[in-house]
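Quick question, first post here. What does this chain look like in 3D?
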Amino acid sequence: MTDASPARQLSGEELVSGLLRLLDVDDLGGDRFLGRRKPGGVGRVFGGQVIGQALAAAERTVPEDRPVHSLHAYFLRGGNEDYEIDFRVERDLDGGSFSNRRIVASQLGKPILTMLASFHRREPGARHASPMPAVPAPEDLANERELRRRHLDKLPKSQQEFVLRQRPIDLRPVEPERWTTAKRMEPVANTWFRSMAALPDDPKIHRAVLAYASDMTLLGTCTLPHDLRWDKGNVMSASLDHAIWFHDDFRADEWLLYACDSPWADHARGFNRGSIYTRDGRLVASVAQEGMIRPIAPKA
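> Answer (accepted):
Ran it through. C-alpha coordinates below.
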Protein backbone atom coordinates (compact mmCIF):
# COMPACT_ATOMS: atom_id res chain seq x y z
CA MET A 1 0.00 0.00 0.00
CA THR A 2 1.28 3.45 -0.89
CA ASP A 3 1.43 5.87 2.02
CA ALA A 4 0.68 9.37 0.75
CA SER A 5 0.53 10.91 4.23
CA PRO A 6 2.82 13.85 5.07
CA ALA A 7 6.13 13.23 6.80
CA ARG A 8 5.03 14.83 10.07
CA GLN A 9 1.58 14.28 11.49
CA LEU A 10 0.12 17.24 13.38
CA SER A 11 -1.26 16.72 16.87
CA GLY A 12 -4.93 17.22 17.63
CA GLU A 13 -4.04 20.37 19.55
CA GLU A 14 -2.20 21.78 16.53
CA LEU A 15 -5.06 20.97 14.18
CA VAL A 16 -7.66 22.57 16.46
CA SER A 17 -5.46 25.62 17.09
CA GLY A 18 -5.31 26.11 13.32
CA LEU A 19 -9.09 25.78 13.05
CA LEU A 20 -9.64 28.38 15.77
CA ARG A 21 -7.31 30.83 14.00
CA LEU A 22 -9.17 30.17 10.75
CA LEU A 23 -12.58 30.93 12.30
CA ASP A 24 -11.43 34.02 14.24
CA VAL A 25 -12.12 36.85 11.77
CA ASP A 26 -10.30 40.19 11.97
CA ASP A 27 -12.44 43.25 12.75
CA LEU A 28 -11.68 45.99 10.20
CA GLY A 29 -14.20 48.45 11.67
CA GLY A 30 -17.51 49.62 10.26
CA ASP A 31 -18.97 46.08 10.44
CA ARG A 32 -16.35 44.85 7.96
CA PHE A 33 -14.35 41.71 8.76
CA LEU A 34 -11.56 39.70 7.16
CA GLY A 35 -11.49 35.90 7.05
CA ARG A 36 -8.08 34.25 6.92
CA ARG A 37 -6.91 31.80 4.30
CA LYS A 38 -6.51 28.17 5.30
CA PRO A 39 -2.75 27.47 5.55
CA GLY A 40 -1.80 25.11 2.75
CA GLY A 41 -5.26 25.29 1.20
CA VAL A 42 -5.47 24.42 -2.48
CA GLY A 43 -8.37 24.93 -4.91
CA ARG A 44 -11.89 25.70 -3.71
CA VAL A 45 -12.60 26.99 -0.21
CA PHE A 46 -14.50 24.53 2.02
CA GLY A 47 -18.07 25.76 2.41
CA GLY A 48 -18.11 25.14 6.15
CA GLN A 49 -15.20 27.54 6.52
CA VAL A 50 -17.08 30.39 4.85
CA ILE A 51 -20.21 29.74 6.94
CA GLY A 52 -18.22 29.55 10.17
CA GLN A 53 -16.36 32.79 9.41
CA ALA A 54 -19.58 34.56 8.36
CA LEU A 55 -21.24 33.50 11.61
CA ALA A 56 -18.22 34.69 13.62
CA ALA A 57 -18.41 38.07 11.87
CA ALA A 58 -22.16 38.45 12.51
CA GLU A 59 -21.83 37.50 16.17
CA ARG A 60 -19.33 40.32 16.69
CA THR A 61 -22.20 42.78 16.06
CA VAL A 62 -24.83 41.25 18.38
CA PRO A 63 -25.18 41.52 22.19
CA GLU A 64 -23.77 38.58 24.15
CA ASP A 65 -27.21 37.65 25.55
CA ARG A 66 -28.58 36.89 22.06
CA PRO A 67 -27.11 33.63 20.74
CA VAL A 68 -27.72 32.72 17.10
CA HIS A 69 -30.78 30.51 16.60
CA SER A 70 -30.70 30.14 12.81
CA LEU A 71 -28.72 30.95 9.71
CA HIS A 72 -29.53 30.58 6.03
CA ALA A 73 -26.71 30.78 3.47
CA TYR A 74 -26.46 30.66 -0.31
CA PHE A 75 -23.22 29.74 -2.05
CA LEU A 76 -22.93 31.98 -5.11
CA ARG A 77 -19.43 31.20 -6.38
CA GLY A 78 -16.71 28.80 -5.38
CA GLY A 79 -14.23 30.52 -3.06
CA ASN A 80 -10.54 30.45 -3.97
CA GLU A 81 -7.99 29.29 -1.39
CA ASP A 82 -5.48 31.79 -2.81
CA TYR A 83 -7.30 34.78 -1.27
CA GLU A 84 -8.66 35.96 2.06
CA ILE A 85 -12.41 36.55 2.37
CA ASP A 86 -14.04 39.93 2.99
CA PHE A 87 -17.22 39.99 5.10
CA ARG A 88 -19.73 42.85 5.27
CA VAL A 89 -22.42 42.74 7.96
CA GLU A 90 -25.67 44.71 7.78
CA ARG A 91 -27.65 45.28 11.00
CA ASP A 92 -31.17 44.78 9.67
CA LEU A 93 -32.93 44.45 13.03
CA ASP A 94 -32.36 44.87 16.76
CA GLY A 95 -35.76 44.32 18.35
CA GLY A 96 -36.92 43.61 21.87
CA SER A 97 -35.79 39.96 21.81
CA PHE A 98 -34.56 39.24 18.25
CA SER A 99 -31.71 40.60 16.14
CA ASN A 100 -31.16 39.95 12.44
CA ARG A 101 -27.96 40.28 10.42
CA ARG A 102 -27.27 40.11 6.69
CA ILE A 103 -23.76 39.01 5.69
CA VAL A 104 -22.02 39.10 2.31
CA ALA A 105 -18.73 37.23 1.83
CA SER A 106 -16.61 38.39 -1.12
CA GLN A 107 -13.31 37.71 -2.85
CA LEU A 108 -11.76 40.08 -5.38
CA GLY A 109 -14.87 42.27 -5.17
CA LYS A 110 -17.32 39.48 -6.12
CA PRO A 111 -19.74 37.86 -3.62
CA ILE A 112 -19.18 34.16 -2.98
CA LEU A 113 -21.80 33.74 -0.24
CA THR A 114 -24.79 35.59 1.18
CA MET A 115 -26.20 34.72 4.57
CA LEU A 116 -28.98 35.77 6.94
CA ALA A 117 -28.59 35.05 10.64
CA SER A 118 -31.15 35.53 13.41
CA PHE A 119 -30.36 35.91 17.12
CA HIS A 120 -32.75 35.43 20.03
CA ARG A 121 -32.62 36.30 23.69
CA ARG A 122 -33.33 33.08 25.61
CA GLU A 123 -36.83 32.72 27.10
CA PRO A 124 -38.91 29.82 28.46
CA GLY A 125 -41.46 27.97 26.32
CA ALA A 126 -43.07 24.63 25.38
CA ARG A 127 -40.62 21.83 24.73
CA HIS A 128 -40.42 18.62 22.66
CA ALA A 129 -37.78 16.98 20.45
CA SER A 130 -37.37 13.96 18.18
CA PRO A 131 -35.39 11.13 19.80
CA MET A 132 -31.84 10.29 18.79
CA PRO A 133 -31.39 7.18 16.62
CA ALA A 134 -30.02 4.07 18.36
CA VAL A 135 -26.43 3.75 17.08
CA PRO A 136 -23.14 2.26 18.32
CA ALA A 137 -20.92 4.37 20.59
CA PRO A 138 -18.14 6.37 18.90
CA GLU A 139 -15.45 4.40 20.79
CA ASP A 140 -16.60 1.27 18.93
CA LEU A 141 -16.12 2.87 15.50
CA ALA A 142 -13.11 3.65 13.30
CA ASN A 143 -12.54 7.24 12.19
CA GLU A 144 -12.97 8.12 8.53
CA ARG A 145 -9.25 8.65 7.93
CA GLU A 146 -8.44 5.14 9.09
CA LEU A 147 -11.23 3.73 6.94
CA ARG A 148 -9.87 5.52 3.91
CA ARG A 149 -6.32 4.38 4.67
CA ARG A 150 -7.45 0.74 4.62
CA HIS A 151 -8.66 1.18 1.04
CA LEU A 152 -5.94 3.50 -0.24
CA ASP A 153 -4.78 1.10 -2.96
CA LYS A 154 -8.18 1.38 -4.67
CA LEU A 155 -7.73 5.12 -5.25
CA PRO A 156 -5.72 6.83 -7.99
CA LYS A 157 -2.50 8.40 -6.73
CA SER A 158 -3.88 11.85 -7.54
CA GLN A 159 -6.52 11.37 -4.82
CA GLN A 160 -4.47 9.62 -2.14
CA GLU A 161 -2.94 12.72 -0.58
CA PHE A 162 -6.33 14.48 -0.53
CA VAL A 163 -8.00 11.49 1.11
CA LEU A 164 -5.40 11.20 3.86
CA ARG A 165 -5.25 14.88 4.75
CA GLN A 166 -5.57 15.58 8.45
CA ARG A 167 -8.71 17.24 9.73
CA PRO A 168 -9.36 19.18 12.94
CA ILE A 169 -12.64 17.24 13.24
CA ASP A 170 -12.72 13.56 14.23
CA LEU A 171 -15.43 11.78 12.18
CA ARG A 172 -16.64 8.30 13.14
CA PRO A 173 -19.15 6.96 10.57
CA VAL A 174 -21.75 4.55 11.92
CA GLU A 175 -22.14 2.95 8.47
CA PRO A 176 -18.48 2.54 7.43
CA GLU A 177 -19.40 0.74 4.22
CA ARG A 178 -20.50 4.04 2.67
CA TRP A 179 -16.83 5.11 2.82
CA THR A 180 -15.39 1.85 1.51
CA THR A 181 -17.80 0.28 -0.99
CA ALA A 182 -19.24 1.21 -4.36
CA LYS A 183 -22.60 -0.49 -3.77
CA ARG A 184 -25.76 1.61 -3.70
CA MET A 185 -27.26 2.27 -0.28
CA GLU A 186 -30.23 3.92 1.35
CA PRO A 187 -29.79 7.72 1.67
CA VAL A 188 -29.09 7.61 5.41
CA ALA A 189 -25.79 8.53 7.06
CA ASN A 190 -25.00 8.71 10.78
CA THR A 191 -21.66 10.10 11.94
CA TRP A 192 -20.23 10.92 15.35
CA PHE A 193 -17.99 13.97 15.36
CA ARG A 194 -16.05 16.25 17.70
CA SER A 195 -13.00 18.48 17.54
CA MET A 196 -9.65 16.73 17.75
CA ALA A 197 -8.76 18.61 20.95
CA ALA A 198 -10.41 20.63 23.69
CA LEU A 199 -11.94 24.00 22.80
CA PRO A 200 -12.21 27.18 24.89
CA ASP A 201 -15.41 27.57 26.91
CA ASP A 202 -16.81 30.42 24.76
CA PRO A 203 -20.17 29.15 23.32
CA LYS A 204 -19.62 31.21 20.15
CA ILE A 205 -16.56 29.11 19.36
CA HIS A 206 -18.52 25.89 19.73
CA ARG A 207 -21.26 27.22 17.42
CA ALA A 208 -18.67 28.24 14.82
CA VAL A 209 -17.03 24.81 14.96
CA LEU A 210 -20.40 23.08 14.58
CA ALA A 211 -21.20 25.34 11.62
CA TYR A 212 -17.85 24.37 10.08
CA ALA A 213 -18.40 20.65 10.64
CA SER A 214 -22.03 20.71 9.47
CA ASP A 215 -20.85 20.85 5.84
CA MET A 216 -19.05 17.50 6.27
CA THR A 217 -20.77 14.23 5.22
CA LEU A 218 -24.09 15.99 4.49
CA LEU A 219 -24.00 16.39 0.69
CA GLY A 220 -22.77 12.84 0.18
CA THR A 221 -25.99 11.47 1.70
CA CYS A 222 -28.01 12.14 -1.46
CA THR A 223 -25.49 10.25 -3.64
CA LEU A 224 -25.71 6.99 -1.69
CA PRO A 225 -28.60 5.41 -3.72
CA HIS A 226 -26.84 6.26 -7.01
CA ASP A 227 -23.67 5.32 -8.83
CA LEU A 228 -22.20 8.77 -8.19
CA ARG A 229 -18.88 8.82 -6.38
CA TRP A 230 -16.15 11.42 -6.08
CA ASP A 231 -13.44 8.77 -6.13
CA LYS A 232 -14.82 7.54 -9.48
CA GLY A 233 -14.79 11.06 -10.90
CA ASN A 234 -18.33 10.70 -12.29
CA VAL A 235 -20.02 13.54 -10.40
CA MET A 236 -19.58 17.32 -10.23
CA SER A 237 -20.80 18.55 -6.87
CA ALA A 238 -21.19 21.81 -4.99
CA SER A 239 -23.24 23.03 -2.03
CA LEU A 240 -25.94 25.43 -3.22
CA ASP A 241 -27.44 26.54 0.08
CA HIS A 242 -27.09 25.65 3.75
CA ALA A 243 -29.29 26.30 6.78
CA ILE A 244 -28.68 25.62 10.46
CA TRP A 245 -31.08 25.97 13.38
CA PHE A 246 -29.36 26.07 16.78
CA HIS A 247 -31.75 24.66 19.36
CA ASP A 248 -29.73 24.36 22.56
CA ASP A 249 -26.28 24.60 24.11
CA PHE A 250 -23.58 22.00 23.39
CA ARG A 251 -19.85 21.49 23.29
CA ALA A 252 -18.24 20.72 19.93
CA ASP A 253 -15.27 19.06 21.67
CA GLU A 254 -17.63 16.37 23.04
CA TRP A 255 -19.17 13.68 20.84
CA LEU A 256 -22.11 14.82 18.71
CA LEU A 257 -24.15 12.55 16.43
CA TYR A 258 -24.91 13.90 12.96
CA ALA A 259 -27.95 11.93 11.75
CA CYS A 260 -28.47 12.70 8.05
CA ASP A 261 -30.95 11.60 5.43
CA SER A 262 -31.90 12.64 1.91
CA PRO A 263 -35.62 12.54 1.03
CA TRP A 264 -35.18 13.72 -2.59
CA ALA A 265 -32.79 14.03 -5.54
CA ASP A 266 -33.48 14.95 -9.19
CA HIS A 267 -32.54 17.50 -11.85
CA ALA A 268 -28.84 17.22 -10.88
CA ARG A 269 -29.66 18.41 -7.33
CA GLY A 270 -29.99 16.57 -4.05
CA PHE A 271 -31.69 17.67 -0.82
CA ASN A 272 -30.17 16.65 2.51
CA ARG A 273 -31.13 17.21 6.13
CA GLY A 274 -29.41 16.47 9.40
CA SER A 275 -30.15 16.36 13.11
CA ILE A 276 -27.32 16.89 15.59
CA TYR A 277 -27.56 15.26 19.02
CA THR A 278 -25.41 15.30 22.12
CA ARG A 279 -24.29 11.95 23.45
CA ASP A 280 -27.05 11.99 26.06
CA GLY A 281 -29.69 12.36 23.33
CA ARG A 282 -30.47 16.09 23.31
CA LEU A 283 -31.32 17.51 19.89
CA VAL A 284 -29.16 20.65 19.75
CA ALA A 285 -29.19 21.61 16.05
CA SER A 286 -30.88 20.86 12.73
CA VAL A 287 -29.36 21.32 9.28
CA ALA A 288 -30.70 21.37 5.72
CA GLN A 289 -28.81 21.67 2.46
CA GLU A 290 -29.41 21.35 -1.26
CA GLY A 291 -26.43 20.60 -3.45
CA MET A 292 -25.58 20.08 -7.10
CA ILE A 293 -24.80 16.45 -7.98
CA ARG A 294 -24.31 16.63 -11.74
CA PRO A 295 -23.36 13.34 -13.43
CA ILE A 296 -20.28 13.69 -15.65
CA ALA A 297 -18.09 11.38 -17.69
CA PRO A 298 -14.97 10.34 -15.75
CA LYS A 299 -11.72 11.73 -17.08
CA ALA A 300 -9.65 9.21 -18.96
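The two ends are 23 Å apart (CA to CA).
Residues 144 and 166 are 11 Å apart (CA to CA).
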